[in-house]
Amino acid sequence: MAAQSAIGKLHFGGIMATRYGLALNLLSIGRLKFEAYEVENIHPLVVSSPLLRKPLEGLGEKKLARAIGLTEIAIGGMVSTGRWAPKVSAAGSLLAAGVFAVTLSFLVTTPEAWQEGSREPKLSPAGQFLIKDLVLLGASLVTAAESLSNIRRP
Fold this sequence. Notes:
Layout: H1 2-32, H2 36-47, H3 53-59, H4 61-79, H5 86-109, H6 125-131, H7 133-149
């Protein structure tokens, strides 16, 4: 019985760390999109992405970065609502999963994500930066599932 209680507390702690870590990442990364150096940092990613080609043409790099930043900040806020607003949190978590799926697509569309001249595929520093989004994608799915399980059904 004590083991089950400890496991339950461990699970709860893990979910809380995952939810608020995910929200903090989204809020922090979103905030950075308003900095000039971050616009430069994401340049190789957005210019080579078929998914962002039209928004880039319509908005330009600076406005696109800010739109992405506002989106990440809004999603981070949604994720953080957790047990208080599980429907909002679930929607935010699913939107976050979409954000991280898009950023993971940069591994395929960005030539700078891979080291050149290697016999086998090796991630470059840019690719190493992107691969962490696989964990964030998983965290998004876990928090979505947890939030959906907390929705009270009539």
